[in-house]
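Design request, tokens follow.
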């Protein structure tokens, strides 16, 4: 194995039409920014993604390990009601 530009290249030699190929294992890109919340109130979700393209697997190299997307909860505040009630306590 050789470490080049922070990527791991597994050296496996293939002969194909008198050419020499080196397999390249895929590596994840950085995570994208979190997307907007799916709801403005009452618990929505936010998503973000990353791609297996730093580098893309080539010549029988391994795909990236792990998930390409993540999801989190957001906006867990209550939605405003159509009706507003106020209560007063009199002594």
């Amino acid at each position: 194995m050789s470490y080049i530009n922070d990527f791991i290249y597994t050296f496996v030699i293939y002969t194909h039409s008198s050419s020499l190929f080196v397999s390249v294992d895929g590596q994840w890109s950085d995570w994208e920014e979190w997307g907007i919340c799916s709801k403005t109130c009452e618990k929505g979700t936010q998503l973000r993604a990353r791609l297996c393209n730093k580098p893309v697997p080539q010549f029988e190299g391994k795909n990236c390990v792990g998930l390409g997307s993540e999801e989190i909860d957001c906006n867990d505040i209550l939605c405003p009601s159509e009706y507003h009630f106020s209560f007063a306590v009199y002594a």
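Comment from the thread starter after seeing the answer: thanks! The chain has one domain: 2-74.
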